[in-house]
Amino acid sequence: MFVQHFFNALTLGSLYGLIAIGYTMVYGILRLINFAHGDMFMLGAYFVFFATTLWALPWSLAVVVAIIGTALCGVLVDRMAYRPLRDAPRISALISAIGVSFFIQNLSLVLFTGLPRAVMRPDWLVNVIKFGDIRILPLAIIVPIVTAALVASLLWVIYRTKPGLAMRAISKDIETTRLMGVPVDKVIAMTFAIGSALAAASGIMWALRYPQINPFMGLVPGNKAFIAAVFGGIGSIQGAVVGGMILGFIEIMVVAFFPGLSGYRDAFAFILLIVILLMKPTGLMGEKLEDKI
Questions:
Q1: Residue 254 is assigned to a structural domain of this protein
Q2: What's the rounded Cα separation, in Å, for the pair 94 and 75?
Q3: Cα–Cα 20 to 30 A to 207, which of 80, 175, 201, 224?
Q4: 17 near 244, Cβ under 8 Å?
Q5: Which domain holds residue 148?
Q6: How many structural domains does the chain have?
Q7: Looking at the domain assignment, is residue 229 inside a domain?
Q8: Predicted pLDDT at 288
Q9: Does any domain span residue 240?
Q10: Which residues of 192-225 are buried (b: 16+ CB within 10 A; e: fewer)?
Q11: How crowded is residue 137: how many other Cβ atoms within 10 Å of its Cβ?
C-alpha cells in the first residue's frame, strides 16, 4: 500500500508545485502575490471541458487550445488589472489582485453556472495498472513526468534565453532594466502568460485526476500552492516545486497512516505556513528580497 500512497502523493505534490511556480514567478519580478492565479487553474479545466464538448475537438488539441487560452487570460489580467498600477503602492496592486480573483470566480459562476461538470477522460488515462495488490492510474505516473518536463523547459527558458535573462534582470531592478531598453511590460506579460499556462496544465491534470469541475475549484488548490511557494521559498522556482512536493506528501501520508486525522487534512497546510513563517520566513530555498517601492 505504501507504493500506492507514494504515487498519489507524488501526483498531488507535482500539481501543487506546478501551480506554485506561477505564484513565485510573478512575485519574483513584481513582488506581487497574484491571487487570481488559482482562477487560471480553474479556467484551464473549463476550457478543456468546452473544447471537447461544445467544439468537439480531439482531446490533445483541446488541451493545447485550453493552455493557450488560459495564457492569454493571464496576459489580459496583467494588462487590465496590474499594469495600470505598476507605479502605485504595492497595497493597491494587492487589493486589485484580490478583486480580480473574486471577479473571475463570480463571472465564471454566471457564465458556466455552479453546476459541477465532468471532464472527458481518455480511456488510456483511466485504465488501472495492476501490480499484485497495487492499483495505479496512469495519471499517477504521467503527471510527475509532465511536471518534470515543464519545469525543465521553464528553467531552460529562464537561464538560457534572452527573455529569461530579461526576467532575471527585472527581478533585480526593474527601473534600471527599463533604462537599458528592455521592453519591461512585454517581459512581464510573458511571465504572466507562462505562469498561467502552467496553471492551466495543472488544472487540466487535476480535472483528469478528480473529474469534477466548478467555478471555485481553484480556491483551495491555489491557496495550498501559495503555501507551497512560501514554504519552498517564494521567488525560487526550484523551491516552489520542492514545497509542492513536500506539501503533497504530508497531506497524503498523514491521511494514509493516521486516518483519524483525515478531517484535518487542509489544516496541516496552514499549520505548515505558520511554522515556516515563524522559523524561516524566506522558505527552504528562498533568498531575502528587497522590497520595491
A1: no
A2: 17
A3: 80
A4: yes
A5: 2-217
A6: 1
A7: no
A8: 62
A9: no
A10: bbbbbbbbbbbbbbbbbbeeebbbebbbebbbbb
A11: 19
